[in-house]
Structure formats: structure tokens, C-alpha cells
Design goal:
Elements lengths: L1 E4 L5 E5 L5 E2 L3 E7 H14 E2 L2 E7 L8 H13 L7 E6 L1 H13 L5 E6 L2 H7 L4 E6 L2 E8 L4 E4 L1 H4 L4 H18 L1 H9 L2 H5 L5 H21 L14 H10 L7 H18 L5 H13 L11 H7 L6 E2 L2 E2 L1 E4 L5 E4 L4 H9 L3
Parallel strand pairs: 2-11, 3-5, 4-6, 4-7, 7-8, 8-11
Antiparallel strand pairs: 1-2, 9-10, 12-13, 14-15
The chain binds nicotinamide-adenine-dinucleotide and glycine.
Cofactor: NAD(+); Co(2+); Zn(2+)
Pathway: Metabolic intermediate biosynthesis; chorismate biosynthesis; chorismate from D-erythrose 4-phosphate and phosphoenolpyruvate: step 2/7
Pfam families: DHQ_synthase (PF01761), DHQS_C (PF24621)
Length: about 350
């Protein structure tokens, strides 16, 4: 199965189609120690190139920073990679975000492809060309829009994911269902969560999830590559999630888990503003619970939490852009919510 991402530098997402790839250039594979141990040998059998180098970094969101980028760049210079060389990001969203960013700045830009190994990266992070890293001010605040040449999602790599990782990927899929396609929520509700979380998934289920989400992402990115409108909707839950991840130093929650809490916070705000009815809010909460995703974060200081919104990339001219569901399969951007209404919602999480 192939899905086209129709942007300036169009490319395809291939689902379960990677057998062997041939490159007449040098190739560098960027991965991390966990993924390398599990799957690098398998990948190396599929990649044929002039020379193949591997850069394996430490595992974790806390390494998604400028220091690691510099270490990666230094190794690339030591390997004498040139402007025709190609980078392959082989890992979860942390690797695809960093690999894409490095590719966008190495000698002013080299080609890269993504081979995502988490569900989250297959359904979201590896597609659409958002690249970036965190710094002490917040999440993904440094980065670029830089599209890959291709994305290869292979369900064989997802078989080693823990139930927690699978659920985190599911959070981004639930996100897309809530904002774009209520019918997908029916599909998610009918999934057997025990089979799903214990990796007893049929390949058919996993591939259907990947296909549906890539199809939605392709539609959004093709219409709004640089996030001037429609693509902002994909940030549903993220305004809250980024604050939570930053406050917990990227250690306590997986990204998808923080997004799950963020979605519930956004739904609560939408409910309080009369944009969403209680039934939908409850339904989404129940679905998040079904996959053991968290929906509550104890806010210690409401003012501080509120102030942190202003460092978000979605804040323009001092106005916070909240992405809120306003019905099932529908979302809107609200930038005129009174501070007192936001605070009132945050207070429900004290
Ligand atoms: P991750 O990359 O940290 O991977 C999660 C964990 O799973 C890591 O410990 C990793 O080593 C491990 N892992 C990876 N593949 C594995 C496998 N096949 N088997 C066993 N373990 C495996 O996190 P993630 O959840 O994949 O991605 C989250 C990141 O993606 C965040 O930094 C987020 O900001 C970013 N993101 C980016 C976009 C985008 O559009 N660019 C979209 C969503 C998320
Ligand atoms: N993950 C949000 C986006 O790609 O826009």
C-alpha cells in the first residue's frame, strides 16, 4: 500500500513494502541503542548503498536536544558524508524529529527517509516534515519544516513495542479520529484492547490504523504543509501536553500519554465553554481509559501552568491558540478565550 503526500517535494508513505532499497550514495542510519539492538541487523540486510554508516544515540526524549544534534553532526563530518549522502531515521518520533532536523541543516540540507519503528511515529511523527528538538524553554521550539524523500512503515518492527508504547501511539490516532473522523472512533471502540495492548494484534488491525491515520495526515499536510490553518488542528491536546512534558522534564510521561491528558484537558475546556457536549467528552475519556492512557495531571500551580502556554509555538501576538473539539469529527481554533475561563478549567486539575 502506498499513500502520496502531495507537497512541494511530494513523496510516498509505503506500508509494509520495504524489501530491499538500493542507493548509489553514502547512507547514514540514525537510530538509538534500543532500536539498534532489536532491529538494526534486519534493516542492514535491506539497505544497499555505496557505504553504510550507523549513528546510534542514547534512548530518550531527554536527549532530543541541541547537544545530541551537535554530536550527530560531528559524526557525520567524521564519516565525510557529502551533499549527495542520505540519512535514514530508524526509530520512534524522537529519532525522526532529530534525523529530519539534522538532514535539514547538514551542509544546508541532504535527503532523508524515515523508517519509523513505533506506532506513534508511523501514524504521525514520520509523516509531514515537522522536525525539531526541545530546549529548556519548551518542546519542539527549535526545528524546521523539511520533508523526507519517502517513509517506510513496516509492521514487523512494531512487534517488539510494549503495551505502553502501543497505547501512546493509539493516543495520536484517537486525536485524529476526534478532530476529523468520528467513524474511526467506532472502529477504535470495537478494537479488543487486550489483544491490541498485548501485541496480539493482527497485522491487519495495525495496518488499518496506520493507513487511516496516514490518509488523514496526507489530506491535512497536502492542504497546509506549513501549518497556517488546517494543520494546526493536529495540535489538539498538544498545547496542554507540551507544558506537562516540560514540567515533568520529559521523564514521567511518554509523548502520547501527555497528549491523552492534553486531549482530556482540551475537552474539559470545550465542555466548559459550551462547545462540546458532555456525552462526547465522556466517550473520548472512556476510549482513552480503555487503552490505559492517563487523563489526569495534577497541576501544582495554575498560574505557572497558564504562563507556560505563552512559550508554545501556537501562541501568536500574545494570544493562545487552543484547538478544541466542537462535536465529533470537528475541531476549531479558539484564540479569544478569557483567562478566567482557562483558569477555571485548569482548576479542575488541581
Ligand atoms: P520515542 O522515539 O522516544 O520512542 C518511544 C520508545 O520506544 C523509546 O524508548 C524507543 O527506544 C522505543 N522503541 C522504538 N521503536 C521500538 C521498537 N520497535 N520496539 C521496542 N521499542 C522501541 O517516542 P515516540 O512515542 O515514538 O515519539 C514521540 C516523539 O515524537 C516526541 O518527541 C514528539 O514530539 C514527536 N512527534 C513528532 C511529530 C511530528 O509531526 N514531527 C508528531 C508526533 C510526535
Ligand atoms: N503532529 C502534528 C503535525 O504534524 O502537524
Amino acid at each position: 500500500m502506498q499513500i502520496k503526500i502531495d507537497v512541494d517535494r511530494s513523496y510516498f508513505v509505503f506500508i509494509d513494502e520495504l524489501e530491499k532499497i538500493y542507493f548509489d550514495t553514502k547512507v547514514v542510519i540514525l537510530t538509538n541503542d534500543t532500536v539498534a539492538k532489536l532491529h538494526l541487523d534486519n534493516l542492514l540486510h535491506k539497505i544497499h548503498a555505496k557505504e553504510v554508516f550507523v549513528i546510534s544515540i542514547k534512548d530518550g526524549e531527554k536527549y532530543k536536544n541541541l547537544q545530541t544534534i551537535e554530536e550527530i553532526l560531528n559524526q557525520m563530518f567524521q564519516y565525510k558524508l557529502d551533499r549527495k549522502s542520505l540519512l535514514i531515521s530508524f526509530g520512534g518520533g524522537v529519532i525522526s524529529d532529530m534525523g529530519g532536523f539534522v538532514a535539514s541543516i547538514y551542509q544546508r540540507g541532504i535527503d532523508f527517509i524515515n523508517i519509523p519503528t513505533t506506532l506513534l511515529a508511523c501514524v504521525d511523527a514520520s509523516v509531514g516534515g515537522k522536525t525539531g528538538i526541545n530546549n529548556k524553554f519548551g518542546k519542539n521550539l527549535i526545528g524546521s519544516f523539511y520533508q523526507p524523500k519517502a517513509v517506510y512503515c513496516q509492521s514487523e518492527y512494531l512487534k517488539t513495542l510494549s503495551s505502553r508504547e502501543l497505547a501512546a501511539g493509539m493516543a495520536e490516532f484517537i486525536k485524529m479520529a476526534v478532530i476529523f473522523d468520528g467513524k474511526i472512533l467506532d472502529f477504535i471502540e470495537n478494537l479488543d484492547e487486550n489483544d491490541f495492548l498485548n501485541s496480539n494484534n493482527s497485522e491487519q488491525n495495525i495496518n488499518q490504523i496506520i493507513q487511516e491515520s496516514v490518509r488523514l495526515k496526507a489530506m491535512v499536510v497536502s492542504k497546509d504543509e506549513k501549518e497556517s490553518g488546517l494543520r494546526m488542528l493536529l495540535n489538539y491536546g498538544h498545547t496542554f501536553a507540551h507544558v506537562i512534558e516540560n514540567q515533568t522534564k520529559y521523564k514521567k510521561y511518554l509523548h502520547g500519554e501527555a497528549v491523552a491528558i492534553g486531549m482530556h484537558m482540551a475537552n474539559t475546556l470545550a465542555l466548559n465553554l459550551g462547545l462540546l457536549d458532555a456525552q462526547v467528552c465522556q466517550r473520548v475519556k472512556k476510549i482513552l481509559n480503555k487503552f490505559n492512557l492517563p487523563v489526569f495531571y495534577k497541576i501544582l500551580d495554575v498560574e505557572k501552568f497558564y504562563e507556560a502556554f505563552f512559550l508554545d509555538k501556537k501562541t501568536h501576538h500574545e494570544k493562545i491558540n487552543f484547538i478544541l473539539p466542537c462535536g465529533l469529527g470537528k475541531a476549531c481554533i479558539k484564540n479569544d478565550i478569557a483567562k478566567k475561563d482557562i483558569i477555571r478549567t485548569l482548576e479542575e486539575f488541581l
